[in-house]
Amino acid sequence: MTMDHDDATDARPTDPTAAHGDRSVDSGKSRRVRSLGTDLSGFQASSIALVVLVALGGVVATPVAAGLTAGSSASSVAAGPTASVAVEAAGPTGPADRPEIDGGFSRPTYTGVAGDPIEVSFTAENPDGPTYLLIGGNRLTDTGEPVGFVDVVKVSGTSDITINTRTLGTDASNVESCGLEATSCDLTFVDENGDTVAENLSALPTATGAGGLARPLVPQRYRLAITNGTFVVEDSGVVTPTASADQADLVLQKPRFREDVEVFTTADRDALGEDVDAESLDALRENGLDRSVVTKGNRIVLGFESTGIWGALSHFAAERGAGPIEAGEAVDHRVLTDLLKRESGVSLRVRQTNPGMNEPPARLDLSRADPEDVTLIPAAATELETPDAPGRFYLVIDTSGGDHFTEEPEPGDEFAVEFALEGTEGDRYAFADGAEPPAAFGSASGPSDAAQFPYWETGDSTVRAEATFTVRERFLRYDHVTDDGEILVEAANGRITGTTSLLPRREMTATFVNDAGDAPFRTESPLEIADGNFTIGVDLEEISPGTRLNYELYEGSTLRDSRTVVVVGDADNPDELVIDDAPENVTVTEGGNLSALRATARNAGGLTGEGQLTLTVDNGSAVGSWGVRLEPGKSRTYAFGSVTVDLDPGTYPFTLRLDGDSHGGTLVVEQDPATTTIDDEGDGSTENGTDTGDGGADDGTDVDGSSDDGDSEPNSTAPNGSDSGADSNDTETDGDEGPGATSDGDAPADQETDSVGMLPLPFGTREAFGGTVLVGAIHVLGHWV
User: Fold this and answer.
1) CA of 290: how far to CAs of 281, 322, 414, in Å?
2) CA-to-CA distance for 212 and 215, rounded, in angstroms?
3) pLDDT tens-digit map of 205-218
């Protein structure tokens, strides 16, 4: 039974493998294709079953091979190269002298992406002449129109052929296309009456009236057939081999695009050293950080993912002799430059978004780039399916300088990145009119058609992948420094810490030197960087707080920083003042002073400290304060003889405070034995100086209810609790003297600078003496290139 073209369309199978499922392969036997005669009298066009295709995204039907006798096999299905299968066309015969051919495909269907290379494995043997691979020649299911253009590739022997679908059928084809003048082919195209209509591909479109492809190979299903070079051209323009050893399908999918850009920063080439492959993605990641802020002089890495562009990139790589494009292997960046200049609809822009007033923005110009400044690395796709081709490329850009930026990037510059496949709804890319085969990279509309990606359909518009990155200065920021820039390091901890914009690959060493004293000190420690932080460890257990060390930071033999390191007890409180010694209990007589209350203050930090030693009693009626100024490691004892106790007999808690340290005790006020209290209601008798009568008032309140404040004695405290005479004793520990060394007077001598004397209250905070510590950012290395 025969069917016309419309019947063939309606009768196509819905299972993509259905047409191959009935194929019978006789393993171990080889059936050969015999040349057909030229007698076409019995030929009927309707006996040729047309190949009907369903557009990708819908049901894909496997075509029934045209010109097959009933029960014959359309293709081998065994994995790997198959046994040859003889296929004879019913109806007309071809030239009588065509040789027999053997061959088979390794699979029934080959799947790839339109615009990318695809590998087709098969065997083909013709001892008496050439063998040809037919590509295309069937209907396009998205339009219902036949494919007027067919490419025939000359092959021989067992072959794994890589077909560049971007250049197939054009003047830049990467295979031995019979459409190229340099390829000698023996082809014959006859019509349904057996008359020769063409003997080469250039004459075929005119002879069939179907015309050539309107654009590069579209996402569609195409026929593959191993033939002897004879074909029948139907009135509709469909081209069918008169004989084929085997047939298969080539399914090209629509390119896919990932709408985000991977961004990370990595070390510069010099930092990596000669032992590290600076063009290896693994090395770039290992010596970099996942961040979009790049330190001046380091490299920013931008990763883009798309299919449909790799055929063009492969072509330009071959033109430049850059070798094949393979995942993980760096390629000349000028290949990408060629793509952006000559391939329509592909664009990449890197430009500054925050130029200064009247300043031009910096832009990336790949055409001016040196290979040392820009590297192009293809890679396997992370999300997209890309058979036989990479799907991702990385652009590694140096920020230290060079001609690849129109203006040299500076710290603070911000950049926008955009990679796009452009399209205008309602338009399609088309080859330029004229020569056959068409020019691979010449569009029908010339430069005005530059914004149209070749594989977008009329309903597609531009897709973009966008990202940003920022350039910043090279710096080390120490966590603990003084306002003079001295670094503070704790003796017990022995760690200098901070943040940095440098990457972990930097190898830096710090030296610590102290030539003072009997035993000179010198040591070296590496600077270690991790996650934007740095640490320098140094053993300072034998170094006392207050010691100053000369600190120098080297990268190799290059000095990067030089300053002073001060050893302290607590880096967060480097001038810490503490109360070393004070009594737990103090007993005084009513109306007396607190000369028995003495406290020793010590500077436990590494810097000269200033603060206030204050005394308060629970109700605040007896207070005093000393201004304290001590050098590192020094001590001094302070007494409160100038403070008069104006308290009734009893027990009171007291507190001494100094720079965050505190000491508590108990103050016992005893009644003056020379005082007798008269009780108006009692008998006036006393016992041990205490009135035992019922009328005595012991609450300090007169009979008439007025408050008994009492008159101030000559040595009583001032209203603020401090005697201007500073009648206080002090003891200083200095050098070899112990804590018991006491000065002659109650107050520190005028010439001594460790104390600032008794202070009036209320008193201020330690800031009143001028802060000595600034914990914050110190930018160094700003002079680096």
Assistant:
1) 13, 30, 17
2) 9
3) 665 555 556 678 88
